[in-house]
Write a structure and sequence with these properties.
This protein is of the alpha/beta class. The chain has 18 helices and 29 strands. The strands form seven sheets. The chain has a nine-stranded mixed sheet with strand order 2-1-11-10-12-13-14-15-16, with helices on both faces. A five-stranded parallel sheet has the order 4-3-5-6-7, with helices on both faces. A five-stranded antiparallel sheet has the order 18-17-19-20-21, with no helix packed on it. The chain binds adenosine monophosphate. Adenosine monophosphate is lined by residues 227-228, 271, 345-348, 367, 369-372, 392, 453, 455, 467, 470. The site of adenosine monophosphate has 17 residues, from strand 14, strand 20 and strand 21.
């Protein structure tokens, strides 16, 4: 059995760290870690995928011996297709066994860039272009999925793509459904230039017992993930082998072994699923289960979730707060006695929801904190010690975390004391070397090399980390910084409110004024005036009380369940500019777009004749740029 060290207190972390990192784990690549696990647990289940969500629906499981063999073939195939150590293979796939193989094989052969299949063609093309992707692994046409079409349209716009490899999900369908598939295939226009090949046909010819090339060392950049972009355009973050292995080693050291089963309904194009979850399985031999391509978004997954836990004898469920909120409302009649913990992260978990979830399900939550820029894991509540609700626990072993006050250039102005709020800064084997786009790296690291996370937080007297907001999210009202979290927390206290997103709306006098978008609980009622009154009473400072509150059917959320603030900002700008123009007698549609260098820009489509000078008089006092749509 692999070494296991219980983790309850900060002293336990210090104990682990008494052995230097490289001494505890000599440099190792992801592929070598997989080889070790496959040697130790060859016949144990490794990856399972079910295309439909029913507890009795067919599923495909690979054991560790098979995962190693198929990964070896995938890596060899990618090399044969021209992927060298510095070349990019893009994975535009939903969750499935092939996505896991493409990730691990891709990071072994070259640099893998997973792309969210929900992105639009333009964004996909832009990520392919920026990474100079040579091979694109994607879906073959599949009913009710537009991924294949988007992939081909995007690839057609990018010169670097030399091969498209298609994964045909129909082999996951049983019997009649699979037989019907050729008739259900949507018609596709052949828009691309690159040859299209079948993933499994290409793979089969490759050796499965050895790599056909020399692997680089653990400092090699082997992946490039795009950030969720909750505060702006997605940014590309390169990851080293070393950071990937680190994300697997730590959970395996403290709490996850080969008999564990992790159900992961989160997308593999995001760091949370790939690193602390998939890599932990690679490090420990635990079983990684993917319910449907869409995970929590998949049809029936939330409804059947507890039955799926029973089916797979799940010990760890992986979730985000929005999923927790949907799951507490479901029927809980299933045998879930195998469950040990629900690991939750990615976005703030409201304390009320935390308590409701534990009460309703009896499952203990371990809330953690991570980010793409740290490969992922930063801190988590200790599984064998006191969990402080609302905190994100202790920094994991070999991660140092400080709360600093920095100026814009990254110079440290002061270090905060216990419970004093400042910017969370970290150092760890997982911290990335900086974004691929150099322009984004200004002030990203402190002078002495600590990553500035952009998150605001504090460390309490016991060493627990509390996230209090995001520096990069602040609403700046006349030079006064307002943390949107104070508005969101206050409105969440209202009994009718399910979710809140607060952002700054442009204001000619103050720069920005706070506004809030609110999604109500199912069947609940509350009008904006009532919510505004409630906010005035409950938001702790007067200046932070939202000037405008809007009730919306659904808040825009990202694929990992975070409120997508750029959409809310766009709505706010369009509303404020539209109103200001109308008051000046100028009829125009305002469409807000994201511009690479200028950020959000309002584009105007005039419906009545107006001179540019007249428009400038109305809109120039606002800080946000505008232009006439061409
Ligand atoms: P991403 O790189 O897309 O995963 O986003 C990382 C960001 O998500 C962090 O910088 C935090 O702002 C936020 N985040 C992650 N985990 C938590 C958490 N447990 N509570 C609050 N915010 C979180």
């Amino acid at each position: 059995m692999a070494e296991r060290i219980e983790w309850a207190t900060l002293e336990d972390k210090a104990d682990v760290e008494r052995v230097p990192y490289e001494e505890r784990w000599p440099p190792c690549t992801v592929y070598r870690m997989l080889q070790e696990t496959a040697a130790a647990h060859a016949d144990r289940p490794a990856l399972s995928f079910q295309i439909k969500s029913g507890p009795d629906d067919s599923a495909e499981t690979m054991d560790w011996r098979t995962v190693l063999a198929r990964t070896t073939q995938t890596a060899n195939m990618l090399r044969a297709l021209g992927i060298g150590a510095g070349d990019t293979v893009a994975a535009l796939l939903p969750n499935c066994n092939e996505m896991a193989l493409t990730l691990i094989g891709g990071m072994t052969a070259g640099i893998v860039t997973p792309i969210n299949p929900l992105l639009e063609v333009e964004q996909i093309a832009s990520l392919l272009r920026e990474t100079r992707a040579k091979v694109l692994v994607t879906l073959a046409p599949f009913p009710r999925s537009d991924v294949a079409n988007k992939a081909q349209a995007a690839a057609a716009e990018v010169d670097t793509v030399e091969t498209i490899l298609e994964v045909d999900l129909k082999h996951y369908l049983s019997g009649a459904a699979s037989w019907l598939m050729p008739f259900l295939r949507p018609k596709m226009a052949a828009q691309h230039r690159a040859p299209v090949k079948d993933f499994w046909t290409e793979l089969r010819g490759q050796p499965d017992d050895r790599l056909t090339f020399e692997e680089g060392d653990d400092t090699r950049i082997a992946a490039c993930f795009h950030t969720g972009g909750t505060t702006g355009m997605p940014k590309l973050a390169p990851h080293r082998q070393r950071g990937m292995v680190y994300n697997g080693r730590i959970p395996a050291l403290h709490m996850i072994g080969e008999t564990d089963v992790l159900i992961c309904p989160l997308p593999l194009f995001h760091v949370f699923a790939t690193y602390p979850i998939l890599m932990t399985c690679l490090a420990s031999g635990a079983h990684f289960v993917m319910p449907t391509p869409g995970g929590f978004r998949g049809e029936g997954v939330i409804t059947n979730f507890w039955k799926l836990v029973e089916r797979w004898r799940v010990t760890f469920m992986i979730m985000v707060p929005t999923a927790a909120s949907a799951l507490v409302r479901r029927d809980f009649s299933a045998d879930t006695s195998s469950l040990r913990y629900a690991v939750c992260g990615s976005a703030p978990m409201p304390v009320r929801l935390f308590e409701r979830f534990e009460e309703a399900t009896g499952v203990k939550i371990l809330e953690g904190y991570g980010m793409t820029e740290a490969t992922c894991l930063v801190s988590i509540n200790p599984p064998h010690g006191e969990r402080k609700i609302g905190s994100v626990g202790y920094p994991i072993a070999y991660t140092d975390l400080r709360i600093l006050q920095c100026d814009a250039d990254g110079n440290v102005v002061a270090e905060c004391g216990a419970d004093e709020v400042g910017e969370i800064c970290i150092r760890s084997p997982g911290v990335f070397p900086g974004y691929t786009d150099e322009r984004r790296n200004e002030g990203l690291f402190t002078g002495d090399g600590w990553l500035r996370t952009g998150d605001l937080g504090r460390i309490d007297a016991d060493g627990y980390v509390w996230i209090t907001g995001r520096a990069k999210d602040l609403i700046i009202r006349g030079g006064h910084n307002i943390d949107p979290a104070v508005i969101e927390e206050a409105l969440l206290e209202h009994p009718a409110v399910a979710m809140v997103g607060a952002v700054g709306q442009p204001d000619a006098r103050s720069g920005e004024l706070p506004c809030a978008y609110v999604e109500l609980k199912e069947g609940a009622h509350a009008d904006p005036a009532e919510l505004a009154e409630f906010a005035r009473e409950h938001v702790p400072e007067r200046a932070a009380a939202p000037r405008h509150i809007e009730v919306v059917d659904t808040l825009p959320i990202t694929a990992v369940g975070k409120i997508y603030k750029p959409d809310l900002r766009k709505r706010a700008i369009a509303r404020v500019y539209g109103k200001a123009l109308a008051e000046a007698g100028i009829q125009a549609d305002v469409i807000v777009v994201e511009d690479k260098t200028r950020g959000l820009v309002a584009e105007l489509v005039l419906r009545s004749g107006a001179q540019e000078a007249e428009i400038a008089e109305v809109l120039d006092p606002f800080a946000r740029p505008w232009r006439l749509r061409q």
